[in-house]
Amino acid sequence: MEYTECKHIILGLIFLKYISDSFEQHFAKLKEGEGEYEGADSRKYKYRLDH
After folding, report:
1. What confidence score (pLDDT) does residue 36 get?
2. 29 and 35 in contact (C-beta within 8 Å)?
3. What is the dihedral of CA 7, 13, 26, 45, to 10 degrees?
4. Which residues contact 51 (CB under 8 A, 6 or more apart)?
5. Mean pLDDT of 2-29
6. Which of 9, 17, 26, 44 has the most CB atoms at less than 10 Å from its CB?
7. Would you give the distance in Å from CA 47 to the centre of its chain?
8. Cβ distance 40 to 30 under 8 Å?
9. CA separation for the pair 33, 41 (Å, rounded)
């Protein structure tokens, strides 16, 4: 398999790694209530499913 055939797979994996790392950073900030998420309290809001 040549590089030109698998470059889409390689670029897709690089993009997936970037998105994964970015999500982890944003999730950590949200969890700690830092940065633009300052004051966000996950315990303040309770979600319920009523059927």
Report:
1. 72
2. yes
3. 130
4. none
5. 91
6. 26
7. 21
8. yes
9. 7
3 vs 24, which has greater pLDDT?
24
Distance CA 32, CA 20 (A): 18
In the chain, which ranges are continuous DSSP H helix? 3-32
Residue with tokens 């982890």: 24
Does the pLDDT at position 51 exceed 60?
A: no
Q: Which of 40, 21, 22 is nearest to 30 (CA)?
A: 40
Whole-Å CA distances, 20 to 14, 15, 36, 44, 46: 10, 9, 20, 27, 27
Determine the Cα–Cα distance for residues 21 and 14; give it in Å rounded to an integer.
11
| pTM for this entry | 0.59
